[in-house]
Design brief:
- The chain is mainly α.
- It is built from 8 helices and 3 strands, in the order αααααβββααα.
- β1 and β2 form a beta hairpin.
- It is globular, with a radius of gyration of 16 Å.
- It starts with 20 loop residues before the first helix and ends with a helix.
Length: 193
């Protein structure tokens, strides 16, 4: 992945009522754009300038370059995993099989994932990733953290920085997290396997 703004696969109001057009305007249009710009400025003229974002996230020491690369990667994965709200939205195929194998049920995976998202102190991300042993796991990462740092493949993420939900939900993080399931494009998540 290059350090660039991803093209949204839906209109700015395409995730309503789960995520408003106003939140997309600020979260995607301003926050993510700032991370892209900051990373470009921080890496200009350095060896990191030609690296893809995943490589920077995997190898950069903690600090400004890692923080901005992590936020570019995390937000890109986040925004590209959504689709218009759907009733009874659920994973299918191989992804569903793996979720049942590793969590017992889709509902149990969601319960554990929501718990990770709402209990993360401060700002960060909840992740579903595929570990080196081929098992799905849920983690919570502070700030710009990403499962790539532990050698895992990130599949699904919920942003629990307040800028992701405060316009629409104020301080109701748990309500926001629960509603995100309605807009997950499970085909995208399965393709990331």
């Amino acid at each position: 992945m290059k350090n660039e703004m991803p093209k949204l696969p839906y209109p700015q109001n395409g995730l309503e009522p789960v995520i408003s057009a106003e939140t997309i305007e600020y979260h995607y249009g301003k926050h993510l754009q700032t991370y892209v710009t900051n990373l470009a400025n921080l890496t200009k003229g350095s060896a990191d300038e030609s690296k893809d974002v995943e490589e920077i996230v995997r190898t950069a020491p903690d600090g400004g370059i890692f923080n901005n690369a992590g936020q570019v990667l995390n937000h890109t994965l986040y925004f590209l995993q959504f689709t218009a709200p759907k009733a009874d939205n659920a994973p299918t195929g191989k992804l569903k099989e793996l979720i049942i194998r590793d969590f017992g049920s889709v509902e149990e995976m969601k319960t554990q994932f929501e718990n990770a998202a709402v209990t993360l102190f401060g700002s960060g991300w909840a992740w579903l990733s595929l570990n080196k042993d081929g098992k799905l796991q849920i983690t919570k990462e502070s700030n710009a953290g990403n499962p790539l740092r532990q050698g895992n493949k990130p599949l699904l993420c919920f942003d629990v920085w307040e800028h992701a939900y405060y316009i629409d939900y104020r301080n109701r993080r748990a309500e926001h997290v629960k509603k995100l399931w309605d807009i997950i494009d499970w085909n995208v998540i399965e393709q990331r396997l």
